[in-house]
Amino acid sequence: MGVTVRYSIVVPAFNEEAVIKETHRRLKQVMDSTRESYELLFVNDGSRDRTLEILKGISKEDPNVRIIGFSRNFGHQVAITAGMDHASGQAIVCIDADLQDPPDVILEMIAKWKEGYDVVYGKRMKRKGETFFKKLTASVFYRFLRNMTTVNIPVDAGDFRLLDRKVCDVLKQLPEKNRYIRGLVSWIGFRQTYVEYVREERFAGETKYPLKKMLRFAWDGITSFSRVPLIISTGIGMVLSIISTVTFLAILVRQVVGIQPYPWWVYLILLNLLCLGFVFIVLGIMGEYIGRIYDETKNRPLYIVSEKAGFHNEQEPNELHR
Ligand code: UDP
Ligand code: MG
After folding, report:
1. 2 pLDDT more than 60
2. 3, 27, 286, 316: least surrounded by Cβ within 10 Å?
3. Is residue 213 over pLDDT 90?
4. Could you tell me which of 224, 198, 31, 211 has the C-alpha nearest to residue 126?
């Protein structure tokens, strides 16, 4: 990757012609103030406007700017992944192009990194200029996901975060295609902390995350980190079986004791319900196995070693074990 720099700032941009110049100006200002080397890595995610043109113009004047251009729109998470693949810094910061994540916060993240943290994520204390609907759905979703998975994914944190080189290297080696990066970062571990910030209004332009993309993203998050949807049917099956068995016994007793006679089809319905219950349970069991197959195909390593001591032939510190 050629020259190494201290910091890489990864900026995914999709149709951001209205802000990209200002974003560059603000990032440059903040990063210059560190007096350390850095690169601004813009990933143009198949923009259909003048984003790429403007970026090329900027890179002619600023030697710290790098551009990666996608052949079409591949999506935000993929753009971040590409940025990290090409970043050469010792610390990598991902930040949105629309200035909703204030560039100044990067300095706070860097300070935490220098204290020895490997992951510093931005936690949104307040979200300005976003619709009530977006805030509500986001808030519900983060909490919902948290309860469905064993990975400790922080609530109210987006993709604005700093990663140490070693975390970035591990992330790069995870082969899965549906990348829900915030989940993966949590899953990786290492020393993680956060800085709080107020999410600003979009500087210009409009959101590139329409409801459809948001739902897709939420679904990726759930299905990458939880097997619950696959085994929901076990629950349904158990409830159905219990209901039908109890009712069956109840009316049988009433019939035998002679309180009330029931027509034959009542039994037929109950028998049907019971069978349906069994079918759902079997589906759930199959779901459990499919879940396991899915886990295997995700091909995440079993564990990640962060340090080793006392070995005679020292190996790379954070190699993956498959
Ligand atoms: N983005 C991208 N590809 C996409 C959608 C969005 O690279 O398909 C970028 C976008 O340019 C911005 C960031 O991802 O830098 C976050 O998008 P946006 O601000 O539209 O999302 P919101 O803040 O509304 O959730
Ligand atoms: Mg935004």
Report:
1. no
2. 3
3. no
4. 198
